[in-house]
Amino acid sequence: MTRKPISPEVRRQLIIAQRNEITEHHIYSRLAANVKDEHNREVLTKIADDELRHYHIWAKYTGRDVNPSRWAILKFYWIARLLGITFGIKLLEKGEENAQINYSQIAREVPEAAGISKEENDHEQELIQMLEEDKLKYIGSIVLGLNDALVEILGTLAGLTFALQNTKIVALAGIIAGIAGALSMSSSEYLSNRSEGNDEGAVKSAIFTGLAYLFAVVFLVAPYLIFSSPFVALLVAVIDSVFVVFIYSYYISVANDQPFRKRFLEMVVLSTVVGLISFGLGYLVRIAFGIEV
């Protein structure tokens, strides 16, 4: 039976879909070939096979082969390797959602389109949820470490900035407080997990919490080692804290399908309020005790 010719607009959308499918096939295949976990390898291979099957279905209607986007393959492969497979894949899927492909319009001329759309929305999402990663398993520990460091260390730096007004001394105090805070948070997280019977994950939770805390400390203290003016250093530290909150809020929103704006604004407001209170307390301490450095 002769297939009815498709309209130019549907053909254009099918070619875009073809490029997306073959590109994602190569991304998933490369990731599958480089993961050590057998379960994750099977999941990624299954998704890669689905993408290739979809590509061949579209090719029947367009009558042509389409090359993958080499830039997209390279970009998302390394994002997934560096920031986690789940994050990389969900970021990739978000980009696919924004692609100019109207499946309901395509389905009027291509019967398979409805089924492929359902697979893209349901089946592949189910497979993605099956991925297992330490980065996501211990995301609560990472958030705990970052939150505490941003609130505690930024508050400490703000208070010391006005009380001492010496960047080197403030930086030294921030480093000491940061190391002590990281060790304290790590030990607390370890004991908390042990008390809940999570002996296997206690050490990893403690490590993730401590490293996240130290990561935030480095960002916040660095301006005091670069700038001579304590108030410029504090301003840059505040900007750094907002940047860190933006990055990890975006990461969590993508990886865990959570609202980005609410989490970001909550953390920025909390850090700002604590910083202002500490800044004011530092000023009062300086006046009350007549501190001059």
In short:
84% of the residues lie in helices and 0% in strands.
Instruction: Report strand %.
Output: under 5%
Tell me how many strands there are. Answer: 0
Name the overall outline. Answer: elongated
Number of domains: 2
Number of helices: 12
Averaged pLDDT:
80
* Rg, Cα atoms, Å: 25 Å
Main location: membrane
GO molecular function: manganese ion transmembrane transporter activity
Subcellular location: Endomembrane system
Membrane topology: Multi-pass membrane protein
Descriptive notes:
GO terms for molecular function: manganese ion transmembrane transporter activity. The chain crosses the membrane at residues 138-163, 169-185, 206-226, 232-252, 264-289. One of its GO terms (cellular component) is endomembrane system. By secondary structure, the protein is mainly α. The protein has two domains: 8-132; 135-289, no CATH class. It is built from twelve helices and no strands. The relative contact order is 0.10.
